[in-house]
Design a protein that fits this description.
The longest helix has 87 residues. The protein is an all-alpha fold. 97% of the residues lie in helices and 0% in strands.
C-alpha cells in the first residue's frame, strides 16, 4: 500500500506540475496579448499627440508669419513717413542727421 500511495502521490505531483505548466503557458499568452494591446494603445496615443503637435506648430507658424507681415507693413509706413518728412523739410533732416552723428561720435569715444 505504501507503494501505491507513493505512486499516487507521484501521479498527483506530475498532474499538478502539468497543470502549473499549462497555467504558466496561459499566463505567458495573456501577458503577450496584454503587451500587444499596450503597444497598440501607445501607438494610437503617440499618433494623436503628433497630430496635435503638428496642428499647434502650424498655428504658431501662421501666427508668426502674420505678425511678421504686420511689422513689415508698419516699418514700410514709418519709412514712407520719414521720406515725406525729409522731402518737406530737407534742412531739418540734415540737421538731425548731423546731430545724431555728433552724439554717436561722442558716445563711441568713451
Amino acid at each position: 500500500m505504501a507503494t501505491t500511495s507513493k505512486t499516487d502521490k507521484d501521479a498527483e505531483a506530475e498532474a499538478a506540475s502539468s497543470a502549473l505548466g499549462t497555467e504558466i503557458a496561459a499566463l505567458r499568452a495573456d501577458l503577450s496579448e496584454l503587451a500587444a494591446h499596450v503597444a497598440r494603445i501607445a501607438k494610437t496615443r503617440a499618433s494623436g499627440l503628433k497630430s496635435v503637435a503638428d496642428a499647434k506648430s502650424g498655428n504658431a507658424l501662421a501666427t508668426g508669419e502674420a505678425t511678421l507681415q504686420e511689422i513689415a507693413g508698419e516699418l514700410r509706413s514709418l519709412e514712407d513717413e520719414l521720406a515725406d518728412a525729409t522731402r518737406r523739410r530737407p534742412l531739418t533732416a540734415i540737421g538731425l542727421a548731423a546731430l545724431a552723428g555728433y552724439l554717436f561720435g561722442i558716445l563711441s569715444r568713451r
